[in-house]
Amino acid sequence: MKYETVIGLEIHVQLATQSKLFSGAATRYGAEPNAQACIIDLGMPGVLPVINETAIKMAVKFGLAVNASITSPSVFARKNYFYPDLPKGYQISQLDLPIVANGSIDVQLDDGEIKTIRITRAHLEEDAGKSVHEGYGEHTAIDLNRAGTPLIEIVSEPDIRSAKEAAAYMKKIHSLIRYLEISDGNMQEGSFRCDANVSIREDGSSELGTRAEIKNINSFRFVEKAIDYEVERQIDLLESGKKVTQETRLYDANKNETRSMRSKEEANDYRYFPDPDLLPVMFSDELIKSIEQSMPELPDAKRQRFIDELGLSVYDSDNLTASRELANYFEQALAIATNAKLTANWVMGEFLAALNKEGLDISDTPVSADMLGGLVKRIDDNTISGKIAKQVFDAMWNGEGSADQIIEAQGLHQVTDTGAIEKLVDDVINANPKQVEQYQNSPDDKKGKLIGFFVGQVMKTSQGKANPQQVNKLLKEKLK
Amino acid sequence: MTLDRKQIEDIAMLARLSIKEDDIPVHQTELGEILKMVEQMKSVDTDAIEPLAHPLEIDARLRPDTITEENQREKNQKMAPQTQDGYYLVPKVIE
Q1: Do residues A100 and A122 touch, judged by C-beta distance below 8 A?
Q2: Mutate which: A149, A279, A282, vs B, most B CBs within 10 A
């Protein structure tokens, strides 16, 4: 039997605020346990939450970026459950009136097809604390630094049809929140994680199958692997005449499998109700307009501009806009270099290769965008050849200064003085009488290939500094 | 509407309350009374009425995103029955 996979993702994005959603405690990652947990985060009696304005604006920014409607008034609700890392006994979240509703985002699939994934909603909520189960004997140790940190939970419609699509969607959302600067998107630190609702159904059926929810996936690779595993598991169940049970499962990356966490039999009933401590949040048109005006250029628009205005290929534009950091780097380098295609080649070629080789992020690069722009400019204005440029790039990477400094210090200027090049050409011709004879006796269509030998020799004796076009031209004239 | 024993037990579990076997009939009656009242309220026609999230008809005051809290861990942890290495300790919870 053929099956269709149906996937919906819930992505949790930690917002990059200084302070928590409802208290003035810091949100910095990696602090001493409980050093950033104040009495509001601890759920002490008598305290009152006050909403962080920046968190609200970040959620609105996201909503505008996915063409969603902004709900006004938007209401916070209590989600009730007991767990030691949730000291109040409830999480402040949203149910009926989430800030962001009915958006969508376009995702490019491997075959180039553009698919629209609908976003049901995105709501604001506070994160819980962290439990440490190992190393404290008969106890669990609780760190409440993360308790109260603002999150947006982005819920997609079940529009996703494969593990690859799920990863593409997750990457697109990740790129978007980085462009919007509403989150650092750091997956190792848990700032960006997702739950996947996975079900299968007979091909052609319009009814949804029973779904399993895979919790806490924190990498693009794992989302693919976890879904692939889960789909196989569900197919095996159905094929052997069993049923899929609705349950929460955990993906174990070490074993590459999902396993049951708790079945819905003992499922929580969260008993949501509007939080009486918090008033509804209203959004005026002016506020939304002012947020709209503060929005940066989004990846899809930037990509289109690179194609239309800079004349870059679709491939180059896709790659350069995949992350905001890379796009910024390219644009900054381009501001100096001015030749878009040449700059794109250097950013995606030499620059990314060097970063990959050393396992560095763009932010750690020893060659700044200005420096690379300076180098590309010198190739473009014929000060140096592309070959010499690689040598200059390596020197910049090793901290030997700017392109101009290195060219000056090592005397790498391209030789464009015709007299000097002529001398080099003459020397090579005189030193290789056999090859000259062979060249002159061969038919015209073979000459192009044979001349390469002489160009190579001249470039070698000039240590790569002769202008190759001039060398070529002179050789052709003299070998006639 | 009356609640059966299982429902009373489930509600007690959700609220993490331990109730005595003998008290279940009492809870059945008392919670049943509340549900009766809810049934009565449900009979009111509310189609034209907007849901009310809060009895005060004002909107939320927001605060600027600044850190106003200092580290009060030492003081806060004096209230806790058990702490270690800066953590609050609780009886072991296993998923």
Answers
A1: yes
A2: A279
Q: What are phi and psi of A82, to 5 degrees?
A: -105, 125
CB pairs under 8 A between A and B: 134
> Partners of A101 in the beta sheet?
A69, A121
pTM for this model (two decimals): 0.83
Which single residue is written with the structure tokens 């979240």? A93
Q: Give the whole-number percent of chain A exceeding pLDDT 70.
A: 99
Residues from chain A that touch B64, judged by Cβ atoms under 8 A, are 53-54
C-alpha neighbours within 13 Å on the C-beta side of residue A76: 27
Smallest Cβ–Cβ distance between B84 and the set A42, A141, A276 belongs to A141
Strand partners, A132: A141
Cβ atoms within 10 Å of A74's Cβ, excluding its own: 25
Q: Which helix (H) or strand (E) element contains residue A192?
A: strand A192-202
Torsion (CA) B28, B30, B34, B35 in degrees, nearest 10: 10
Please judge whether B92 and A271 are an interchain contact, meaning their C-beta atoms are less than 8 angstroms apart. Answer: no
Number of CB atoms found within 10 A of residue A20's CB: 29
Q: Are A201 and A3 in contact (CB under 8 A)?
A: yes
Rounded to whole angstroms, the Cα distance separating A390 from A379 reads 10
pLDDT (mean) for A52-69: 97
Measure the CA–CA gap between A105 and A165, rounded to whole angstroms: 12
Q: How many residues belong to chain B?
A: 95
ipTM: 0.90
Q: Is A200 left (phi over 0), alpha (psi -120 to 50) or beta?
A: beta
Tokens of A415: 């030789």
pLDDT in tens, A18-48: 999 999 999 999 999 999 999 999 999 999 9
Residues with pLDDT less than 50, chain B: none
* Cβ contact A478:A429 at 8 Å: yes
pLDDT, tens digit (0-9, with 9 covering 90-100), for A118-169: 999 999 999 999 999 989 999 999 999 999 999 999 999 999 999 999 999 9
The rounded mean pLDDT for chain A is 91
Question: Contact A142/B88, CB-based, under 8 Å?
Answer: yes
- Exposure string over A119-143, b if 16+ CB within 10 A, otherwise e: bbbbbbbbbbbbbbeeebeebbbbb
Q: Is B53 on the interface with A (CB under 8 A)?
A: yes
CA atoms within 13 A on the CB side of A46: 1
Burial category of A92 from C-beta neighbours within 10 Å (exposed 0-12, middle 13-18, buried 19 and up):
buried
CA distance A198 to A165: 13
Question: What mean pLDDT comes out for the span A431-440?
Answer: 85
Residues A280, A288: Cα–Cα separation, whole Å: 16
